[in-house]
Amino acid sequence: MKKTNIFFLIIFVYLLSRTLPACAEWNYTFIPTASLNLEYDSNIFFTQRDKKNDFNYQGEVTLPFHAVSPKTDLSLSYRSSRFQYKSETQANYGNHFIAFGATHTFSPRFSVSLKDNYSITKDSDRVFRSGSIAGETGIIAERSKRKSNSVTGGVHYSLTKRSSLSLSGTNTFYRYSNDLQYDSKTNGGSITYNYVFTPKNRFFTTVTYFDSDYSRDSRQLSENAVYAGISPFLEELLFNSEFDRARNTSAYVGITHHFSPTLETTLYAGARKTKNTTLNLHLQKSLGNVTIRNAAPNTFVQYAVTDPVTGATNTYHQPSDAKGNLTIPNAEITATNASDRTSGMVYNLSITKTFILSTLTLAFDQDVTSRTTYGGTSVRQGYNVSYTYRFSDRLSAYVNGRFDKNTQESDVRNDQYKTYRLGIGGNFAVTRNFSTRFSWNHTKQKRDLQGTKSIDKTGRDVLLLSFTYAWPLVH
User: Fold this and answer.
1) 464: which strand partners?
2) Residue spans of alpha helices (H) in 18-87
3) C-alpha pair distances (Å), 306 with each of 156, 218, 221, 319
4) In principle, which of 194, 242, 303, 446 could form an S-S bond with 418, CB 3.0–4.6 Å?
5) Distance CA 298, CA 320 (A)
6) Exposed (0-12), middle (13-18) or buried (19+): which is 401, by Cβ within 10 Å?
7) In this structure, is the dihedral angle defined by the CA atoms of residues 34, 36, 41 and 47, taken in order, positive or negative?
8) Cα–Cα distance between 81 and 101 in angstroms, integer?
9) Sign of the dihedral through C-alpha 141, 143, 144, 149
10) Are 461 and 445 spatial neighbours (Cβ–Cβ below 8 Å)?
11) What is the SS3 assignment for 385?
């Protein structure tokens, strides 16, 4: 967790503690849970060829603490999970999550909140399965460790009995263990205005702005070198474009309408504007040396160096060493900025119908986001339907389906993914503290990469059997 985030967290908790003596009563809950899961995955790396199927055993422990007073709500939880594959042991991984939340109400009209989420994960292939990162559901990245932290502070103020204003600010960072994925830090915020026309109708409008920085150091820039073969004994040194910064601004308006106590619909629509900055890398004459890796060992490499004073470009030839390293004298890697602007429509329509024992939800949405792996823009359109049925207080079941079309455009990638998902599952409470869960998820994806139409589809089936026990130590 970043030092600045810890500092603000301590200050917020201290300010809250100054108000605690005035509170008449606190209620606490501490209910740890432990889960043991058995899962079969027909395509654990979600590849089109050379599929690997395997069983994995999952263990998860959650330690949630919750404290509530008439004016303050505090929560702190830790969750750790471990995934152990039977045969493909190189795919084993573990995750850790820490979450803190606090809300304090100063008056019936004014409240503040703070949330902090820290995680260490190593499950990049499961980003696709859960679809948890909007706009990135089609990317199957190499499994790598990721550290992230996100702090969000918010203020809510009731202007009148019918209207309110909410402000929030967020600071987020991501750190990856390999150079194929982009470390980033993001700052931004949002402002939302709500107005209740009638008990059945609510209007809202939201404006957001987020600035994401993906800049990399000189060593990481040198990793962006690629080599084109000229002959069996000669390669040419080139550089890919480097994604550097993304600024997203969005604004939308919406309305929630209750046709009846059991039928609700929410619609919002607006636009998102994205400005991406890309670095065009090249070698420039300087007093130092630069070392570039990943050339073919003991092979002559052709490269070009530009003189910053005259603008002239000269071509040189030099052999790489036995490890494929190329040390270029009197040169450095420099970059020139290139930016592009895109805009697109964002919308979401959801309809929820509640019956006596079941709930049906339909949703249609579109979003436009910046891509973090290659830069550029991603446009995602999604259609979702879900149905849940409660057979009794102890037994429930669900079925859901979703279709996503994800179009991704950048300087180096122009891809389209069409993804179909179907899920069926159920939950059964054996006792008050012991429960079991079963699910089957089928996924099929068609990938048209670099503008080339694909005939084959990538498929995956996941069967899960889960057992969970809860200990109500404080309740």
Assistant:
1) 39, 439
2) none
3) 55, 18, 17, 20
4) 446
5) 5
6) middle
7) positive
8) 21
9) positive
10) no
11) strand
Sign of the C-alpha dihedral, residues 9, 15, 17, 19?
negative
User: Residue type for 135, please?
Assistant: G
Q: Strand 300-306 relative to strand 290-292: parallel, antiparallel, unpaired?
A: unpaired
Amino acid symbol at 425: G
pLDDT at 113: 97
> Rounded CA gap, 302 and 312, in Å?
17
Q: Quote the pTM value.
A: 0.78
Could you give phi then psi for residue 453, rounded to 5 degrees? -70, 135
Q: According to the model, what pLDDT value does residue 3 have?
A: 47
Residue pointed to by tokens 């005035």: 22
**Burial bucket for residue 73 (CB in 10 Å: 0-12, 13-18, 19+):** middle
Are 380 and 406 contacting, i.e. CB atoms less than 8 angstroms apart? yes
365, containing H or E segment: strand 358-370
Q: How far apart are the first and last CA of the chain?
A: 30
- List the structure tokens of 186: 């993001």
Question: What pLDDT digit, counting tens, does each position of 232-251 carry?
Answer: 778 888 876 677 788 899 99
- Where does residue 214 rank: exposed (0-12), middle (13-18), buried (19+ CB within 10 A)? buried
Query: What is the number of other CB atoms lying within 10 angstroms of the CB of residue 120?
Result: 16
Element (H, E) at 205: strand 201-213
Task: Find the mean pLDDT for residues 209-222.
Answer: 77
Print burial letters for 156-177: b (CB count within 10 Å at least 16), e (below 16): beeeeeeebebebebbbbbebe
Q: Does 15 or 431 have the greater pLDDT score?
A: 431
Q: Closest Cα partner for 119 from 97, 138, 99?
A: 97
